[in-house]
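Here comes an entry:

___
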Amino acid sequence: MTWYSPDPPPELSIARARWPRVIWRLTVLAPLIYGGLALHLLLRLPERAFCGLRRPVTPWITQAVCLGAVRVLGLRLHVGGTPMQGRGALVANHASWLDIFVLNAADRVYFVSKDDVASWPGIGWLAWATGTVFIRRHRHDALQQREIFETRLRLGHRLLFFPEGTSSDGLRVLDFKSTLFAAFFADSLKNDLRLQPVSLRYCPPAGADPRLYGWWGDMDFARHLLFILSQPASGEVRVLFHTPIPVTATRDRKALARHCERAVRAGFEESPAPSRAAVPSAAQAR
């Protein structure tokens, strides 16, 4: 599933004067990410030997690396609300590949991702090493996915997934799909499991296209990455953790999905909106 805008995406050209910024940030970002990955894998060996699937140490490395990466990318991170503790899962709106760094910086979570991400160059390796749960969106895989969720949640892993099923231009929250919510109604989970909605909103630098951080449709990842690296260090991203809801407080997966969507949408709309001056007229009309 891919979301396409009715308007053309922003032009991803980079002015010649901005290339030194791109090169400098790349020279900092690459060692930060892959040096952190090397340390993560090194510590994961004894961690796995003594703790199995539990990860009491390595998520802290992931969070530290992502905090550094968000700063290198020129984003100021603002976190509101309180990340939940204990067994549970989180759901958030999805605007960009940047969400992975931002949400890992805000809390120690494990992402639920579509299986084709595992094959992405660079990104797939990072996702696998940091404990991402890869799933296939096919009905006949539902039972296996539920078993994986149960195992990880019993271990205390806080799983985070994007119920929209795709990323967008960052100016909206898409409708939530309720399919994955069914796993949380398993008899072994539902009585002591909570879900925490999370709202995520980007505010680009003044004068920039407000869709700047969004990544959707056929946009090329490498070009978008370089374009983001070229931007001034004056962008912001706001993460708002809402009050967790017990699974048993709703009657079924559809009701739970609707509750979480309303909370995420409300938090998104309450966040300061980016300037709309640079949005094409068709997008303004929407």
